[in-house]
User: Fold this.
Amino acid sequence: MLKLCGFHISNYHNKVRLALLEKGVAFEEDSDCKPSQEEAFLARSPLGKVPFIEVDGALLTESQVICEYLEDAHPAKPLYPRDPLARAQVRELIQYIELHMELVARRLYREVFFGGKVSDETKKQVERDLAKGVRGFATRARFEPYVAGKEFTLADCSAYVHLPLVSMASKLAFGRDFLDDLPQVKPYIKMLGERPAFARVSEDRKAAQAAMAKK
Ligand SMILES: N[C@@H](CCC(=O)N[C@@H](CS)C(=O)NCC(=O)O)C(=O)O
Assistant:
């Protein structure tokens, strides 16, 4: 059986978990698997990151690649529309969210979430690049009611795990939530949170955060 490895606070782990739950694919989970640069870990995940999956004796990393694999291997409940252009538009949204928003905001996490320090130069770059990413996302996001339109898609799994982090990080670093100009985001995240899979992932994340805070 497919095994998902990572931990419940990881947004990328949670994206894959949402895809598995929404698709109804049976899986085992190692949710105590933390990123590491140790040799034994790198043999399983070459960049030392989570999530990764074990399937049929093989290992696969990168959340988007894993989700594409799930789509090909378990087509019964698709997370992409049928139309090729509409499928590409879902992928475009995911790229905007992950490459041009979350990955940019991630450069702030050391300071805003982990008590470290980020240089003023980095903050300036993040401020500029994040504004671009949010502008691109705002142009493409539909909220009708789902981010790509009328159908629920993988872009919703991605948006749910990443957008709140972009909001929080920008607010803490710059005193301004960069998603405030998109008033649709908060009710949209709330609506998604009512889906059983999303509620479960959210509860598990909160429990893992509480456990970590106690340590
Ligand atoms: N592009 C990767 C990103 C995964 C990622 O950054 N995971 C974080 C945890 S949320 C991680 O493992 N960080 C440790 C590191 O970057 O060394 C994916 O989509 O799976």
